[in-house]
Amino acid sequence: MRTVGIVLLATGGAFGFVLYFAQDAPLVLGLIPPILIITGGFTFYRGRQQAARKGAAGAMDTPGPKVLYLRSFDSDPSVVRQTFKPLLTAELMSGLASEEELLAEVLRPFGRLVAIGRPGERLPAPGAARVYVDDSSWQAVVNEQMLEAQLVIIRIGSSAGLMWELCRAREVVNPRRLLLVVLKLPKRQVAAAVADAGQALGVPLPLPSGNSALGRPEGIYRFSSTWQPEFLAIRPPVMRRSVYKRLRSGFAFALRPVFEDFGIPWIRPGLSKLTISSLVAVGVVLVAPLLLIAVSLVV
Asked: How high is the pLDDT of residue 213?
């Protein structure tokens, strides 16, 4: 399904490009590119969901290190958001990968990312391998996984379950193994969400410093052995900011101190060829008029 989705996306884009330059083409043909692109985006996402369900089988019981990912279910991308929003915005350049998938990719050296699945969902969102439990046992499962996981990642949000998880993390998780993620929260909600998380942990958290490329405070809190918080901004160096899978390099640079703290080799993301080319092009555009003026004065 993923392959079919990519083919449909490429075909729709190519057909739309041809129609743009075609003269006297029937108007009805103009409907074909968006239909192909929308169908391709939906098919591609469904294929990723099917692969996620297959890969999640026995996730919690499979031997090997794991990273526990806890979040409010509201932060999970809906099918509509994950399928159609990237097709209408610059997120199309991000490889159609969600932030959860990119986080799982960057944290792979620590272990497999696992999470509790949303009750009643037919197919899981791509990213963490999900396990499904009933309302009477989810707290026991979370508690067990907190004790076993290499890292415990909690994405800051607002829900009663999330507050319980934060309180429980304070009780059973070594602070060096706990990370709090601030991601895609509206600016007006950041201060309240961070304050609630700090209150649940019993640790005052500083407000996030700095903004991401999209203007939102985004980053990761880590803690010392005495619960002293440190905010790691998701803001990679300019030359290593990639449009493709934008958050991957951001996560990698933000988590570098965590990798070093655990003695796990950290791989520096490569230079972004697109970013460098864009900066060179802008430099040429700015410098060229000055050169022309200088030459004209000399002549």
From this structure: 47
